[in-house]
Amino acid sequence: MPSEGRCWETLQALRSSDKGRLCYHRDWLLRGEDVLEECMSLPKLSSYSGWVIDHVLPHMQENQPVSETSPSSTSASALDQPSFVSKSPDTSSAFSPASPATPNGTKDKDEFQHTESMVLQSSRGIKVEGCIRMYELVHRMKGTEGLRQWQEEQERKVRALSEMASEQLKRFDERKELKQHKEFQDLREVMEKSPSEVIQPFLQILNLKLREAEQQRVKQAEQERLRKEEGQVRLRALYALQEEMLQLSQQLDASEQHRALLKVDLAAFRTRGNQLCSLISGIIRTSSESGCPTAESQAEAERALQEMRDLLTNLGQEITRACEDKKRQDEEEAQVKLQETQMQQGPEAHKEPLASSQGPGGKQIEDLQVKVQDSTMQWYQQLQDASMQCVLTFEGLTNSKDSQAKKIKMDLQKAATIPVSQISTIAGSKLKEIFDKIHSLLSGKLVQSGGRSVSVTLNPQGLDFVQYKLAEKFVKQGEEEVASHHEAAFPIAVVASGIWELHPRVGDLILAHLHKKCPYSVPFYPTFKEGMALEDYQRMLGYQVTDSKVEQQDNFLKRMSGMIRLYAAIIQLRWPYGNRQEIHPHGLNHGWRWLAQILNMEPLSDVTATLLFDFLEVCGNALMKQYQVQFWKMLILLKEDYFPRIEAITSSGQMGSFIRLKQFLEKCLQHKDIPVPKGFLTSSFWRS
Predict the structure, then answer these.
(1) What do you get for the CA distance between the two ends of the chain, in Å?
(2) Bridge partners (DSSP) listed for residue 449
(3) What distances in angstroms separate CA 77 from CA 10, 21, 61, 125, 529, one per listed residue?
(4) Is the per-residue pLDDT at 201 higher than 80?
(5) What confidence tier does 687 reach under pLDDT thresholds 50, 70, 90?
(6) Angstrom distances, CA of residue 645 to CA of 351, 352, 519, 611, 665
(7) Residue 79 and residue 593: Cα distance in Å, rounded?
(8) 612, 598 contact by CB (below 8 A)
């Protein structure tokens, strides 16, 4: 339908017109009279009309000159463009933007006055359209100005950032160039150096790494070796413990011969000994199956061995006590018989006429025996045999080529001899520490020596070796220390006596060493046998022979004196912390025997007088308290009968020892008392 298409075109044209693009409020119908009133009121110019006339209308008039426009076109344009009538020039000038002064200023003013005088008939729509255009222009100008300012600001920022980036790039280039320059200089210096100097740092680093790797390898190998050695040491220690256990078991079986003397049943000792042997055998069998013995297994075996030692020690003490009781009874019976014989026959009973010699007064006196009694000689030979057997027992240890065995031997020797060398009269507490250390070593406990732990259980022959070396050291201290300082005899003797009481074998070895170095302590006068070398005979007499040279007589007497003094101190002293109920293992009765036998033997020039003086000075006070009247009778016999014999064989140059003995004896008989020896340990010493 053509009419319908034209209708749509009309509507489209209206929509595209200026009024059609305006926004209308749909709520005007609700406002009612207000809208009508606005339509009926006279039109008024807006406050922006002055500005619009100054800026908009002049441009429109320039585009359309008056000469080219007709009246009809002028009127038409007047209808299209908004026309405003200003109420007053003040209002328009107040709200119009200031414009710069131009040559056309007078013309514009005249045109404005001419326009102001015109009364234009305009509708409300023209007013609204003018306002809209004005706002659009204002906002467009504001937007353009803001955009321009924003662009300037951005350009300024971009320039600042560009300058900053350019400066940073320059600094980067400078640093890069400096780094390259340094690298070039370093390379140049390296190239200028000799090849050895260039390679040396790398070689040092390489050597350091190689050393570290080698040290790490050696450390690991050492740890593995120590682990294996520890296992081997424990295994050897277990076998050594088993061997010693079997030896102790044999000693336990050997005690059967003393059954008649003992008051206890040996079956209980043997049963417990067999149980301990089976226990150690089981531990070794278990350790062998597991491959490596543990410390707990070794400790258990050591405890079993220690119990076996204690068992044997207790049995030995029982046997020793029984033997001592029987021996004491026999000696007491023999002493009673001897005293009865002496009382009946007088002093002449001690004499055995073997030869005769002329006395100083021309009096014929009978000589005494030179040979020692058979029982004494038998006792002497038993001690020497026991000492030799002990040496043969640890011969494997002394002759071993194994480095470990040599190390053990050296450690044990130091542990046995160093404490004896430290014995002194400084304080009783110090002496007790030394005694406890020696006793612990002999008991199989670990002791510290030279910063290392040492025990006789480290080797099956360790105990025998330590006992022998300990006894040898005691006698050597008497030979050297006591010979130079007589007061040293008492602290050495009290420790030796205490060890002797707890470990009887050590006492027997002490006697064996003492008799060998000083045969007069038996007493025993070795005789020269046919075919014997002179040097060997001199050694038997106690002399030291070095490179066929015999020591001086003074030095010989000094050594003999030191050993006799040590022996005289041992027989009268007891360890104060021991068992007082037990008898002394080698007490004063042996001193009485020695003195009686020495008076029944022919005196030796210079030797007998020296030894008698030393013995009586050290032990005379104790013998006096023990035997009282009988001892004084012995001294009277010594003065009246034995002194002439000594004087008869003593030359004028050797009278010093005889005179010293004679003066000492006369003084004692005169005061009827023998003084306490110098250096004797009193009760206050043990509290220090």
Answers:
(1) 149
(2) 452
(3) 23, 20, 10, 15, 179
(4) no
(5) confident
(6) 12, 14, 21, 15, 16
(7) 174
(8) yes
Contact 619, 360 (CB under 8 A): no
Share of the chain above pLDDT 70, in %: 74
CA 181 remoteness from chain centre: 56
**Strand partners for 601:** 369
**Gap between the Cα atoms of 393 and 245, Å rounded:** 16
Q: Per residue in 329-371, pLDDT tens?
A: 766 676 666 555 544 443 333 333 333 333 333 333 344 555 6
pTM for the predicted model, two decimal places: 0.50
- The mean predicted confidence, pLDDT, of the chain is 76
Dig out the tokens for 95 from the structure. 């709200």
Plot region of 683 (φ>0 → left; ψ -120 to 50 → alpha; else → beta): alpha
613 burial type by CB count under 10 A (0-12 exposed, 13-18 middle, 19+ buried): buried
Three-state DSSP class for 455? coil
H helix intervals, 41-123: 49-63, 71-80, 89-95, 105-116
Q: How far apart are CA 374 and CA 15, in angstroms?
A: 167
Q: What is the pLDDT of residues 272-298, one digit of tens each?
A: 878 888 888 888 877 777 667 777 888
| Cα separation, 655 vs 664, whole angstroms | 14
Mean pLDDT over residues 616-643, rounded?
89
Q: Which residue has the tokens 């009612």?
A: 32
Residue 223 belongs to what H/E stretch?
helix 195-254
- Which amino acid is it at 9? E
Whether 305 contacts 240, CB under 8 Å: no
Q: Supply φ then ψ for residue 34, to 5 degrees.
A: -60, -40
Of 575, 556, 600, 578, nearest to 493 (Cα)? 575
Per the model's pLDDT, the better-predicted residue between 362 and 597 turns out to be 597
Q: For 208-243, how does the pLDDT look when each residue is reduced to its tens digit (9 = 90+)?
A: 888 888 888 888 888 877 777 777 777 777 887 777
Q: How many residues does the chain have?
A: 688
**Please, which residues bridge with residue 356 across strands?**
366
CA–CA dist 288, 680 (Å, integer): 56
Distance of CA 21 to the CA centre of its chain: 104
* DSSP letters spanning 529-563: -TT--HHHHHHHHT--EETTEEPPHHHHHHHHHHH
Helix (H, G, I), strand (E, B) or coil at 369: strand
Q: DSSP alpha helices (H): ranges in 576-654?
A: 588-599, 607-627, 629-637, 643-649
CA–CA gap between residue 5 and residue 7 (Å, rounded): 5
Cα–chain center distance at 276: 36
SS3 3: helix
pLDDT digits (tens, 9 = 90+) for 468-510: 999 999 999 988 888 888 888 999 999 999 999 889 899 999 9
Provide, for the chain, the percentages of residues in helix, strand and coil under a 3-state DSSP scheme, each rounded to the nearest 5.
Answer: 75, 5, 25
Q: Is the pLDDT of residue 112 over 50?
A: no
- 530/184 Cα distance (integer angstroms): 103
* The token pair that represents 432 in the structure block: 């007790």
| Closest listed residue to residue 518, CA positions, set 568, 588, 468 | 568
Closest CA to 622 of 657, 661, 592: 592
* 364-366/447-449 β-pairing: unpaired
Contact 182, 189 (CB under 8 A): no
Tell me the backbone φ, ψ of residue 546, rounded to 5 degrees: -125, 120
Could you give the C-alpha distances from 421 to 36, 449, 450, 482, in angstroms and in order?
Answer: 143, 13, 14, 12
The letter for the amino acid at 331 is E
Q: Are 354 and 367 in contact (CB under 8 A)?
A: yes
Q: How far apart are CA 252 and CA 58, in angstroms?
A: 150
Given a contact cutoff of 8 angstroms between Cβ atoms, the answer to whether 281 and 300 are in contact is no
